[in-house]
Amino acid sequence: MLRNQACAFFDQNQPCGESANTAKYLSSEASWSAANACIDTFGGNGFVKEYDVERKFRETRMYRVAPVNNNMILSYIGQHVLKMPRSY
Fold first, then answer.
1. Structurally, what CATH architecture does the domain formed by 2-81 represent?
2. How far apart are alpha carbons 11 and 20 in whole angstroms?
3. Are 65 and 53 in contact (CB under 8 A)?
């Protein structure tokens, strides 16, 4: 929903930073939580190559740091949405 909202704002030449950053942050955190639950479910087999869980676990970690680190997103939201002073 947030991604679609950000795209609609962008298409209408409206500010979309809040929606885009929030969508990226929430999706990367949800992906990370799902990967952790998967590892917990598979136990030691989660690290066996035949199950492809370890590969997905590594990939989902990337979503938290690329293309924009989640800490930078939190800084953006703090500064531009919550009107807090710049933290860096």
1. Up-down Bundle (1.20)
2. 13
3. no
